[in-house]
Amino acid sequence: MSSTIQHRTLHIAEIFRHICDVADNMTLAILARTCKAFQEPSLQALWRILPDFVPLVKCFPHDCWIIQNDELRFARLPLPNEWIVFLKYAKLVKSLGCRYHTSPLKLHAGVIDALCALRPTLVLFPNIRSLDWPIMDLRGSSLPPTLSLLGDGITALWIESYSRAVSLSEQMLQTAIAIIASRFRYLKSLHISLEDTDPGIGIDSEVSTALSSLLVGLHALTEFKCLDISLSSPTIMHLAQLITLQDLEVRLPDSWTCPEPTVNPFASLTTITLATTIYGYIQFSKAVPLPHIQKFCLYVEDDPPAQLIPDFFSAIRRQFSPISLQNLSINPAGVPNETRARQSGTVIHPADLWPLLEFSLMKNFDFAMECHYALHDAFILHVAKAWPHLETFYLCNENYCVHDTLPSLTALAHLAVHAHNLAEVGLQFDAAGWTRHPDFDHDGGPPEQLYGELQGRASTSDVYSLHVGISPIALPEKVALFLARVFPALESLVTSAFANAEDRALKRWREVERYLPMFVRIRADERLRLQQEPTDACDDEYVMTVDPDVP
């Protein structure tokens, strides 16, 4: 007996709602004017997500607003009886601020002040669920008034100061945080980014205290991201107890005051990003084990102290589990400085990095700090063997990484042979020293010994992107040949964005870039030739065996 699976038939209204979910704004506007049955679902979809206040301000009478220099402002203040259309559509708004909105029309900041002063009801957006504030290009002082217009059902809030035009003062930020704490109890996702401010707001500041108080009152958070404001140790431990928290970006205090390790902290967390000093991280790792984390990003806020380097890498190994961690990123906080790196007395050796090789499931690795390095081919070979699942590998390839010793071209061959899933590589290496090899032949290619285990065999590497930083290089046409053989799928060659345009090495790497497409084309023609050979061979054999005189 065959069984039949029954599916519920959708009603016409349900089908139309699905159509509205994928229709563009112009289509929705046309549908809203088609018939009464289409009007309500079309309008709900049309007003569900707004990039800013501009569409609503245009709901006031035409003589109420004007556009000057691509800026929308009030020509006169709206009267009480002119709010009807505005309020009708404001109730339909679920999300305000579209991150990919590119409209040239901006809203004058005075419009927000007028809306707050003249609003006929305390809450203009009773059904809103998310606010993406920075995309609206308003000045920092407009944030608290904007928050006061929203209903208490907000679940997602993004606050970002990304330019001088919208920079937030600490006073305005403190006021905004107070409004959030008093009104948005159901908040699940909170992002705060102050990219235009000085690095970090101190733990003793009033802003930090206000943010800590806000977080202690939130119990349904799934995401919290703020790397610019330090939180106290007790506040971070409160976050550690939230079973709903899945993604965390936080700035640690300079010193950790919780003496006892926490049992099963951040139980649902899979991704964590920290900004702190080397010492601050070591202390945090002792108090908070994170064996289930899959992705860890660290922004180092100080010059790496030489005496703490061994403990630092051991702390990472201690805090995370080799059977869980798959993505590791360690980089400087703020704008890196090559001069500061050269003045650093810290030298990182392969032995310091050795504890990281125990993370055998590593897929994505990105490491760079402002100091000196002494790397070699043998270490890269160990990396390639220890991390067989590696997909992206960036090791000290930035220009602020000062290399006392460099791996040779052979290091790339190690990665090609042993890291079968590798697609992107960022590594500074010596592409000039091979000319001093005993078997160097100026008229030939690089010596075969440089290919390591690839000698006498073809590479099957899938690496398509190589970031060489400011690696030294000689004879670019020979280096291009080597790279084309080691990484046959190579498409992109990236140099340091901060290198001097007149630098000799940079010019040579650009020459390598010009050669690589030629090798790709030659390889494609060779494949085509090999595909044609069997057919041609069969035709020749047929001609040789058939005698036209035999009936």
Description:
- With 551 residues, the protein is α/β, with parallel strands linked by helices.
- Among the domains are: 246-374; 377-496, Leucine-rich repeat, LRR (right-handed beta-alpha superhelix) (Alpha-Beta Horseshoe), CATH 3.80.10.
- 35% of the residues lie in helices and 16% in strands.
- It contains 18 helices and 21 strands.
- Helix 8 (170-183) runs parallel beside helix 9 (206-216), helix 11 packs parallel to helix 12 and helix 15 runs parallel beside helix 16 (410-418).
- The radius of gyration is 31 Å and the shape is globular.
- Residues 542-546 have low confidence and may be disordered.
Helix content: 25-40%
Strands across the major sheet, in which order? 1-4-6-7-8-9-10-11-12-13-15-17-19-20-21
In whole angstroms, how far apart are the ends?
63 Å
The coarse silhouette is: globular
Gyration radius, rounded: 31 Å
Average predicted local confidence, pLDDT: 87
Q: Which sheet architecture does the biggest sheet show? A: 15 strands, parallel
Beta fraction = 15-25%
| Regions with little confidence, pLDDT below 50 for 5+ residues | 542-546
Class per helix and strand makeup = alpha/beta
Strand tally: 21
Number of helices: 18
Task: Give the structure's gist in a few sentences.
By secondary structure, this protein is an alpha/beta fold. It has helices at about 10-20, 25-30, 35-50, 55, 85-90, 110-120, 145-150, 170-185, 205-215, 235-240, 280-285, 310-320, 340-345, 350-355, 375-385, 410-420, 475-485, 505-545; strands at about 50, 65-70, 70-75, 95, 105, 130, 155-160, 190-195, 225-230, 245-250, 270-275, 295-300, 325-330, 345-350, 365, 370-375, 390-395, 400-405, 425, 465-470, 490-495. It contains 18 helices and 21 strands.
